[in-house]
Amino acid sequence: MKLPAFHLKRYRQIASLLWKYGRTDLAQQMSAEEGFGIDEPPSSEGQQSTDATKSAAGQASPEQLADDLEAMGPTYVKLGQVLAGRPDLLPDAYLKALARLQDRVKPFSYAEVEEVVMTELGVRISKAFSRFDVEPVAAASLGQVHRAALRDGRAVVVKVQRPNIRKQIAEDFEVLEQIAAFLDGHTAFGRRHRFLVILEEFRLTIQQELNYEREAHNLIAFGRNLKEFKLIQVPQPVPDYFTRSILTMDEMDGQKITSLGPLALRDLKGPALAEELFKAYLQQVLVDGLFHADPHPGNVFVTKDGRIALIDLGMVGHTSPEMQENLLKILLAISEGNGEAAAETAIRMSEKLEEFAAPEFRRRITQLVALQRDQGLEQLNVGRSLLEVSGIAQEDGLIVPSELVLLGKTMLQLDEVGRILDPTFDTSASIRRHVAALVAQRMRKDVTQGSIYTTLLEVKDFTVGLPSRLNRIMDTVTNSELEVRVKATDAKMVMDGMQKIANRITMGIVLAGLIVGASLLARVTTPFQIFGYPGLAMLCFLAAATGSFWLVISIFVSDYRSWKKYMR
Question: 294 catalytic, yes or no?
Fold first, then answer.
């Protein structure tokens, strides 16, 4: 592993973090996995380090983990935000502590805010806005949000990106990429989970969130796609007031859903809001192909008129039509407690490694879904189930699409929001209620004016060319000119192998004939002798011995070359 000078500090910080928060039960679980460790056995110093890790783990608190990630910079704050939405990976205490990183990170100074706004918009804050609050209302890993008002009095919020953040994130990813490459190349655990692929997806996510122009276009797209949902609002960006590092959008007059007290929640139409929010997300994922991938409670507002407002649309997911169908099938299978169908869909949509064992995977998924079904479908957490399916797939050598993992994380966060709005909300029942409408929407979406015209043109071409094609086929059959050609991709390899086998058998028969002939001629006494034996018989015997020796050597050489070529 390369160790550039400017990376040494970051390596030391990462090593210190792993040493400080190495949980003994997690370490034992990971070391118990087959082939996790590096191929060399651990030394006595490594054992002492493990003991030190165990002692330190008892002293470090979840709150200190959030503080340490924040001190390491925006990349690790973002990592903490991702982990805060994964209860399948961390205990509840760590989830609650890391949740602070979603919008309560240490802000940067107002002087830096003024400099960024001036650089991006080309004018001073006082010229662009009639009011701009000095104190931010929220500060996160990549930027912070200030309340403001335009010159016409329109209330807005301005999202300002942290200065020099792109350079810092790029350097952090260089370090993380080297660590991931080391794990992938030297540990079986890394080769199975492919940390470089995971890291690349994480990099693309952050790059998208760093581009506020992309987020502005996401706001416009989501506002258009969700306009039929009257209980859901999406703030719209202000034209000419957003760049890659500045985003100005409508202010949502309300508060985070986690800030509402019991009395305020009772005044809301919680069941209706939860139902509409869940239906809107199902449409995003399974019909629109564009969904908000970070609906944690900090990104869901409740407005004063009792509606839901979705904010922070920097992290989005995309699903192709084929992927939408597969995701719909696996969602239905899990919501109905059908483990066999869920396993088959997961296998069909995933990449298979050499060690993948389909029967074992089907058994584990069926067992998982059956266990949750026995606990009651109304208690089933679809998002957690999707993440568990992804985890089992990785353990068994099946690489599931990243869209499935992202959907599982989204559904898990959405379930949390739904339970806040309505403690009795049943995500499985909601999926089953809306499946018919979703399928109908997908069919209507596929039947567009363009697709109809394309189909008509193809039908026209088929109809016009059908008579002439039928005539040619009938003439060919009548004249006995019909030929069927079968092209096998491995035919040449098979024929070459059969040719080698035939040659060796023929050579063996010829040599055997020479040996038998030599034995018969040895009984015939002739004047010509070699070593006291009939000469003709000895010549046949020597020829057979030489041919046999050559045949054995050629077999060994040929087999060795084939083995060497296969090992490459």
Answer: yes
